[in-house]
Design goal:
Length: about 100
């Protein structure tokens, strides 16, 4: 999963590729990572997004699909929930100041 977290693949497909049933995959995953596969995937994708935006400064609309998110709005919502700021605010600190003034 570390190599393929950016692909928009269902948990069922990940389980299939590991040769386990869905319930066995989820149980084993939780035992190893102490998290659910879905939650782990979203966190991993968001961490990669944070790194990319912070270091390379791409637009959210350019990377959300590459990271496995289906919609830009879900990506932005999840990003803000995880990091307390939108991707735009991370990329442009002035945007955060302007948002706080409103």
């Amino acid at each position: 999963m570390n190599k393929n977290f950016t692909f928009n693949v269902s948990i069922e497909r990940f389980a299939f590729h590991t040769g386990r049933s869905l319930s066995a995959f989820k149980r084993d995953f939780r035992a190893i990572f102490n998290d659910t596969p879905n939650h782990w995937l979203v966190k991993k994708r968001l961490q990669e997004a944070y790194f990319l935006i912070d270091k390379k400064n791409p637009k959210s609309s350019d990377i959300y699909l590459e990271l496995g998110f289906e919609t830009l709005s879900h990506f932005s919502y999840a990003f803000k929930k995880e990091f307390g700021q939108t991707p735009t605010e991370l990329a442009d600190p002035k945007a955060k100041t302007a948002a706080n003034i409103r």
